[in-house]
Amino acid sequence: MPRWAIVVEQTAGFGDSKTWSPKVLTEVVGTREQALAKVPDLVSKFIPDHPKLISRRTILRDGDTYMLIARGWSDSYHCVFKVWEILSDSDNPDKVREKRVSR
Q1: Could you tell me the mean pLDDT of each successive run of 10 residues in the chain, 103 residues long?
Q2: Helix, strand, or coil here: 31?
Q3: Are the beta carbons of 78 and 19 closer than 8 angstroms?
Q4: Who contacts 53 (Cβ-Cβ below 8 Å, separation ≥6)?
Q5: Which of 79, 100, 78 is nearest to 29 (CA)?
Q6: What pLDDT is stored for residue 91 in this prediction?
Q7: Which residues, listed in sequence order, are joined to residue 11 by a DSSP beta bridge?
């Protein structure tokens, strides 16, 4: 069975020093649909790095992609959540190779 990564890309830094930073939240072994089914719960419970004090949370969806907009006291930050198939992983090369060969 394939392995899927549920990834959040979120704003890091402040002001003119903001950058975009991806992070794997969890992995799912199974179908893409099984991985996608886990995303709404992760999005609703996710606490972004910024802002520290959130005055408003807005969750949006476009097909299989989710966005969380978090409004702070002076600025808004956003996070995008997607499901990606894991094709290789240098920390676990055999684990990925086993799953892809057995398709």
Answers
A1: 96 80 96 98 94 93 97 89 94 66 49
A2: coil
A3: no
A4: 72, 73
A5: 100
A6: 86
A7: 20
* The pLDDT of residue 48: 93
Tokens of 39: 């995303």
Containing 35, the helix (H) or strand (E) segment is: helix 32-45
Contact 50, 70 (CB under 8 A): yes
Amino acid at 81: F
- DSSP one-letter string for 36-100: HHHHHHHHHH---SS-SS-SEEEEEEETTEEEEEEE-SS-EEEEEEEEEE----TTSHHHHHHHH
State how far the Cα of 71 lies from the Cα of 50, in Å rounded to an integer. 9
CA angle, residues 33, 35, 7, in degrees to nearest 5: 135
Phi-psi region of 99 (alpha: psi -120 to 50; beta: other; left: phi over 0): alpha
Separation of first and last alpha carbons in the chain: 6
